[in-house]
């Protein structure tokens, strides 16, 4: 009585719902996954009794509902189908309107699960359905009843074991329903669309060709009718997979006539009454089916290959409608939202497609306006915030995250990159600029929306950033594809350099959205940076793209003027500058001193004071890179700039220490300037003076002990300089350090002297070692004498003889 079955394979409409992203749990009644045998037997008994007594009360209706709710597991035998047909054939008895729909559903379950249904019984069922509609011609018909009638008629027509005459009878019934425009009622109920499409799909798969063109006309033309359903992405996906299913059947059965007829009527002939999105999705479905057919060894390879070629030409022709003489603009594309979405998803799902300029341009536009509709989001935000009412107007942002087109963003990006790889240079250049402009706009617009929404509409901002993060992945994958096209030996140096700079600038714009380590990102970065390192002009071009200092601290944007702007709170901008701070050191040797002074220095010093220590540390690293760099053609100018920068560097770093300036960054900067500035440079003297002065500002208690105490760290840095500064600065350092050490408490003096003894003892510098030995002896004496005058303490650590012995 009951049998396990996979309903998604048995019932075409359920499969269409699943592959199109519709919740498959919806149906005539709520599904019961585990009915008992007793309940099924009882339900059939109630129905049989109702027919015998001609009393169709609520028990009869409940019995039908119980059986339909178990449709995925029950098996309807021929005797039960005969019982259902008898109910349909009743003319004098008034039945609840819902019962006709439920009876038709059970007949559908019967025909889909029956191995060899009775020819006579099918004929009786068709006549009963036809008679029922004739009797109710003047009555308003329920859309669900019409849809189920189409479904079961189509299912009858595709049963292999039925005779041609019986199939023809079923197809005539189906076409009669369609000709009477009963399906205009279906447009009012979205959930019935897959039911009607499945009925047509079954009919198209029938082994006879009768009424084939009529069925095609309805399938592709109903979307153009005023009363019909309004075309959507979901409908497009249903058509895509419906045609894939039907075409796969043609290929398996080697139905050459059906393949040729479909190609001629749908793909090769342009019909004004056919909806463009439906034809495009059908062509894509043929491509998907043909790819599987070829891989599985279709019997007629030539016919399948020809069908594939015709489908590709049809897709290109439909895409050309959106391209308008090759002039693609995002503004014009946004007026074709459903069509663009359908194009993108179809190309993502249909497999490989021959390269085509219209397809490439449509994919690029779909990605930037439909898959990642950030421009529309920011525009909506501007309108909503202008009215002081943000949330409700952007509720569609959350809905977009669950939209099928967003979920397919990775596949769409893959299809786009495949098309790009084989495109002409002109079209490559067009889509590259579209992507780079997208990155620039994303940076400019998200800066504003992040500052205005953070802390106010955090949930909305999180949703927007999820979309933006996915767009970052698209940009990275595309940029890698670009490098493989242009950064090759056969490409001109000018094109390589231009491409490298544009990729780096675009990456800087989307750096805020980089939260994971991507191999594609690292590969692209390594490749383009290696190109920038080869050419001075390219390096300067990249560096000059950094936002101007004034725009960082005092943006002129209208939105920024509505808030109390603080540059350090602008996380989107900070991420972009951090990208520059990390990349510029890799090509610093190519950057002239004048360019560094003009473009980089002010921004570097600004971000040395950023409260995020990661950012501040990167600024210190950039200075270290410049101090350690050399450029033969401008040694004097470069050295002069280095000295000038050090004065402000020490002032800026120490005034922010320890609250903001990270000690590691300061230490690396001081070490670099002592190594790379000319011997005896005034900047080094100033550095020593500044460090000693800063150390003096800390309470002597703060200079005790070891570890991460700020005052102690400065003292440790000064001790380290003893072995780093040149011999001309060393006397000044020793004098200044001695004045500082004398003021320390006894325990800390002992520790400092001990550290200095160790340094001098291990030193191999025969030039400075004698001076240090003499200085240490004097310092030891002064410390000892200072404490003797102030207390009764004994000697410090070593006597002069002991010191001499150690050294």
From TrEMBL:
PANTHER family: OBSCURIN-LIKE PROTEIN. This is Obscurin-like protein 1.
